[in-house]
């Protein structure tokens, strides 16, 4: 699932600079996530960085935009190049929420 920012956003900006893809930007009323750039931090972190730093927990999975781990990694590779990211076989609990049993939104 892509991540979205709910209207509970307090515009603190903590999430914007944590995103490894530059997918988060200030919108008209709240911060927004560009689905085309969001990789749910696959390839970078075992949890989604925006969720980890959000003080009001408004960065949540978007049930209307479900993506698979392999597709998210492919998107990250398109954005950053394969030399800076692990291969699909190398993903682990530190580089993919799909492999992290402690992922904060596992039940979603």
At the first level of CATH, the class is Alpha Beta
**CATH architecture group name:** 2-Layer Sandwich
- What is the strand arrangement across the widest sheet? 1-4
The total count of helices amounts to 2
Largest sheet: 2 strands, antiparallel
Choose one word for the global shape: globular
Radius of gyration: 13 Å
**In what range is the share of β-strand residues?**
5-15%
User: What's the β-strand tally?
Assistant: 4
The SSE order reads EEEHEH
Output the CATH topology: Alpha-Beta Plaits
Describe this structure in words.
The chain is an alpha+beta fold and 108 residues long. The chain has a single domain, classed as 2-Layer Sandwich (Alpha-Beta Plaits). Helices cover 16% and strands 13% of the residues. The chain has two helices and four strands, in the order βββαβα. The mean pLDDT is 92.
What would you say about this model in short?
By secondary structure, the chain is an alpha+beta fold. It contains 2 helices and 4 strands, in the order E-E-E-H-E-H.
Task: Explain the layout of strands and helices.
Blueprint: E1 2-5, E2 24-26, E3 31-33, H1 49-53, E4 59-62, H2 69-80
Antiparallel strand pairs: 1-4, 2-3
Question: Main traits of this protein?
Answer:
108 residues, alpha+beta, Alpha-Beta Plaits, two-stranded antiparallel sheet, 4 strands, 16% helix, globular
């Amino acid at each position: 699932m892509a991540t979205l920012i709910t209207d509970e956003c307090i515009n603190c900006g903590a999430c914007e600079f944590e995103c490894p893809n530059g997918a988060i930007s200030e919108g008209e009323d709240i911060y927004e996530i560009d689905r085309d750039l969001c990789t749910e931090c696959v390839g970078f972190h075992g949890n989604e960085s925006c969720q980890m730093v959000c003080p009001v927990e408004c960065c949540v999975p978007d049930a209307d935009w479900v993506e698979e781990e392999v597709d998210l990694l492919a998107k990250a590779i398109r954005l950053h190049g394969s030399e800076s990211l692990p291969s699909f076989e190398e993903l682990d609990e530190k580089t993919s929420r799909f492999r992290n049993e402690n992922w904060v939104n596992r039940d979603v």
